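Lab channel / #folding
Pinned by the channel admin:
"Please post every new chain as: sequence first, then the structure tokens as a reply. Keep commentary short and put observations after the output so the thread stays searchable."

First post following the new format, from NK:
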Amino acid sequence: MFQRFAILLCAVVLGCAAVFLFLRKEKTAKNVAPTILFPVGPTVHIPAPLGLPPVPIPADNPPTAPTIALGRRLFYDTILSADNKVSCSTCHSPQHGFSDIRPVSLGIQQKAGTRNSLTALNAAYFHQEFWDGRAASLEAQVEGPVQNPVEMGETFQGVEKKLNADPSYRAQFAQAWGPGPIQFQMVGKSIASFERTLVSGNSPFDRWKYGHDESAVSAAVKRGFVVFTAKEKGNCASCHSVGANDALFTDNKFHNIGVGVDFGKFKDDGLFAVTHNPADRGKFKTPSLRNIALTAPYMHDGSMKTLKEVMDFYIGGGNSNPNLDSEVHKLDFLTRQERSDLLDFMNALTGEMPPNSGPPPVESMTASR
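Reply from TO:
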């Protein structure tokens, strides 16, 4: 009898000890910060072209030559998608200003998305990524399309498995991040480092405004700039900011201009889906106007085919709704000449394409699929 009681008591004690250790392990695991990976090798400088400020670089992901090269390869490689048919460049094509000519992009199995693809050019300057700002960095932005069932439809684990099975990728990741298994964090950081090199400036406007070359643009462009900036005219710069030394042509904020409103109802809630603040319903990020002539169609839903359509939309005062931005009002007082000059000005914002931004040599891409 006593022997049975002793055995039972030991079992209870051991069981309690196991539960205690498990709970302690769980609590400790939750309090442990995730490992932050740093690239190996010396940091490289990403030069900003005329008209743009210095490129913001996060402290935990300094760019290096190997990470930029790796990110470039990954950007153009379909290995990130579940069916090995969709890459970042599928929706952000260099032939179209790193955007998509479709109103909404097509992902795996030709599934259609719901929003127009923003250009990847100068994305490094945005404080938040995506039309609704749901990603706080380029690194975080990479995660979205990979997991989205409509876009790439893959998992982090699936990407890691495919990359670790590829000898050429294992060697390139080791060069960029050191020895060891490939982790998705390395993928996101590498692509982000490449995307930070996608800076485009030195447009005709920049050469005139910041390079002080009066011959860089026509008289119409100069008049269009006045229409663009003057409060009593277009007042476009209230959202598409122009600085004294550089210009991003965005205020890095979110506005409701009435696009996608149908009988007072929003087809897309925009920023509201992130903040859940009713005042944010129908607000979308102010896109940069740099290279705007290359990135048609326009607006978050790709509903406008030409810059003239966009201009006419603003001239009409947008679409009325309870959240319409206070800066949006009719501009029907603009003359025909002023409207033509404004279009000429926007066409003068096409900058130079960044070097080494196209697909890498074929022999460097993965052949083992």
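NK: The two ends are 67 Å apart (CA to CA).
TO: also worth noting, Confidence is low (pLDDT under 50) at residues 1-30.
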